[in-house]
Design a protein that fits this description.
mainly alpha, Methane Monooxygenase Hydroxylase, Chain G, domain 1, Recoverin, domain 1, 77% helix, disordered N terminus, metal-binding, Spectrin/alpha-actinin, F-actin cross-linking protein, actin-binding
Length: 677
């Protein structure tokens, strides 16, 4: 049938609207059947008629089914809308934020879970309605008219749903904001109320106390200052109380669900605040009255403290000074202490007058307390000093004054004795010190000057030594005076620059110098006699040594000695000078003594014995044998020298040795340091 319709339209060239398609279909079908009637037999026509009826009935049944389905879906959707709109239009507020948030969650579940399927149903219903209407037009059926109120185009119910939904959401948000504000105000009220109640707890009991009745003036003033601080604190809390009342008022205006409890709590806070104000005023008046009553006693206590403390310190200082251990070392120092003590004694009458004035103040305090029957202690809150302490310390001062007089006088006598010891020691030390110095200079001059024969120098030095030994009595006497000074614990002496240690060192140095100088002259005499040096040569050696002794201390350093040798014609290399220095300065002290200089000069200029000469002499005594016997030594040499050689000669172990043979060659080499024997 569709084919026939299309064929008709294609060849007829008709351009009808889609809504006329059903009618064209019937007309074309009628025409077609009329054309075909002539060519189709009767059986075929019956079958065709039956098919047409079936198809028409099937289309009609399907359309009726779609109509019933539409009616059912539209009824269910409208029923859901009717149930939902009252829920969305319910504006009954909840009392708590939690309940309102639950409503908001339910609404959000509705928007997320319940409504989206209904929106799909509405859309599907519109699609079904349009499809049904199209099929009816195609099948040349009249348009479908749903029951009243179930038209898809009738959007009143859905619009009311949308409107209720929008209004419900706005109401929820506004209500949540209102409850949030209420909860914030309620929490703020609770916090401020709790803070105020915590602060006010126990304040009434404190204000009702009568602790000032038995308090001292200092304590009353402290209580008054504390009360003033409390009043400042009370005034500062006025603003909090007003804030609490204002918040309670706002909660009432916003219809807070727990406004009854809020009002009750606020009323209690305001009532307590009024009581605190009344009690605060009464306590201030009582404290001020008590303060005025104790002021007189306090002034007396303060006056006592101001005068007793300095006086007590003065007495303590006086006792310390009177008992102070003093250490003086001169008459001037002890005289200064005596003068200071006399000045102190002159102040005692004035101090006694001050003591009596202080006692009068304390007596006045006790009189006032007894007269007014005041329930406070007579002890002074400003001072720890008591009258008993002042009396005891004053008596102690009077006892220590004469004791101090006696000790100062004894020390003055001791210092006079010490001064005599100083002067006595200084007189002797000032004489002995220069005498020792002069003798040292004389000995030094005699040791470096050319004064003639060595024997004359020796005699002069012996005379010096004799005079020095005879002077020992003066040193011993000075030692005795020094012992007395030490026993008297005298450590300084302004009358002399000499100490006993200086004198001892100088005396020991003088004895050492004279002994060393005599020994040097004796050594020079022995050297002269042993080497055959004339007195003129000795004088020349002394003149040369003195010339190059730049420091004039009886010693030449290495450079002075080198210059002396060069002036005498020596051609010195470093090795040769080092060899000479090992002879004149074997210990490496860096100086050359006059004796070492003479030994070197005599070794260089005089005819001296050598190891070879001594070996040749022993060979003669041994009858040309390479060894010598003990009997031969005893026969040829003095007994002591023979015994010296026998004791020190090593045994001979060379060719032709016999028992008891002694090696005179090794012995002779050892005498001149040419072997390790």
């Amino acid at each position: 049938m569709t084919y026939v319709s299309c064929f008709y339209h294609a060849f007829a060239g008709a351009e009808q609207e889609a809504t006329l398609w059903g009618r064209s279909y019937l007309e074309s079908s009628t025409y077609s059947f009329q054309e075909m009637r002539a060519t189709v037999n009767s059986s075929t026509m019956a079958e065709t008629a039956a098919n047409r009826i079936c198809k028409v009935l099937a289309v009609n049944q399907e359309n009726e089914r779609l109509m019933e389905e539409y009616e059912r879906l539209a009824s269910e959707l409208l029923e859901w809308i009717r149930r939902t709109i009252p829920w969305l239009e319910n504006r009954t507020p909840e009392k708590t934020m939690k309940a309102m948030q639950k409503k908001l969650e339910d609404f959000r579940d509705y928007r997320r879970k319940h409504k989206p399927p209904k929106v799909q149903e509405k859309c599907q219903l519109e699609i079904n309605f349009n499809t049904l209407q199209t099929k009816l037009r195609i099948s040349n059926r009249p348009a479908f008219m749903p029951s009243e109120g179930k038209m898809v185009s009738d959007a009143g119910a859905w619009q009311r749903l949308e409107q209720a939904e929008k209004g419900y959401e706005e109401w929820l948000l506004n209500e949540i904001r209102r409850l949030e504000r209420l909860e914030h105000l309620a929490e703020k009220f609770r916090q401020k109320a709790s803070t105020h109640e915590t602060w006010a707890y126990g304040k009434e009991q404190i204000l009702l106390q009568k602790d000032y009745e038995s308090a001292s003036l200092t304590e009353v003033r402290a209580l008054l200052r504390k009360h003033e601080a409390f009043e400042s604190d009370l005034a500062a809390h006025q603003d909090r109380v007003e804030q609490i009342a204002a918040i309670a008022q706002e909660l009432n205006e916003l219809d807070y669900h727990d406004a009854v409890n809020v009002n009750d709590r606020c009323q209690k806070i305001c009532d307590q605040w009024d009581r605190l104000g009344t009690l605060t005023q009464k306590r201030r008046e009582a404290l001020e009255r008590t303060e005025k009553l104790l002021e007189t006693i306090d002034q007396l206590h303060l006056e006592f403290a101001k005068r007793a403390a300095p006086f007590n310190n003065w007495m303590e200082g006086a006792m310390e000074d009177l008992q102070d251990m003093f250490i003086v070392h001169s008459i001037e120092e002890i005289q200064s202490l005596i003068t200071a003590h006399e000045q102190f004694k002159a102040t005692l009458p004035e101090a006694d007058g001050e003591r009596q004035s202080i006692m009068a103040i304390q007596n006045e305090v006790e009189k006032v307390i007894q007269s007014y029957n005041i329930r406070i202690s007579s002890s002074n809150p400003y001072s720890t000093v008591t009258m008993d302490e002042l009396r005891a310390k004053w008596d102690k001062v009077k006892q220590l004054v004469p004791i101090r007089d006696q000790s100062l006088q004894e020390e003055l006598a001791r210092q006079h004795a010490n001064e005599r010891l100083r002067r006595q020691f200084a007189a002797q030390a000032n004489a002995i010190g220069p005498w020792i110095q002069n003798k040292m200079e004389e000995i030094a001059r005699s040791s470096i000057q050319i004064t003639g024969a060595l024997e004359d120098q020796m005699n002069q030095l012996k005379q010096y030594e004799h005079n020095i030994i005879n002077y020992k009595n003066n040193i011993d006497k000075l030692e005795g005076d020094h012992q007395l000074i030490q026993e008297a614990l005298v450590f300084d002496n302004k009358h002399t620059n000499y100490t006993m240690e200086h004198i001892r060192v100088g005396w020991e140095l003088l004895l050492t110098t004279i002994a060393r100088t005599i020994n040097e002259v004796e050594t020079q005499i022995l050297t002269r006699d042993a080497k055959g040096i004339t007195q003129e040569q000795m004088n020349e050696f002394r003149a040369s040594f003195n010339h190059f002794d730049r420091r004039k201390n009886g010693l030449m350093d290495h450079e002075d000695f080198r210059a002396c040798l060069i002036s005498m014609g020596y051609d010195l290399g470093e090795a040769e000078f080092a060899r000479i220095m090992t002879l004149v300065d074997p210990n490496g002290q860096g100086t050359v003594t006059f004796q070492s200089f003479i030994d070197f000069m005599t070794r260089e200029t005089a005819d001296t014995d050598t190891a070879e000469q001594v070996i040749a002499s022993f060979r003669i005594l041994a009858s040309d044998k390479p060894y010598i016997l003990a009997e031969e030594l005893r026969r040829e040499l003095p007994p002591d020298q023979a015994q010296y050689c026998i004791k020190r000669m090593p045994a001979y172990s060379g060719p032709g040795s016999v028992p008891g043979a002694l090696d005179y060659t090794a012995f002779s080499s050892a005498l001149y340091g040419e072997s390790d024997l």
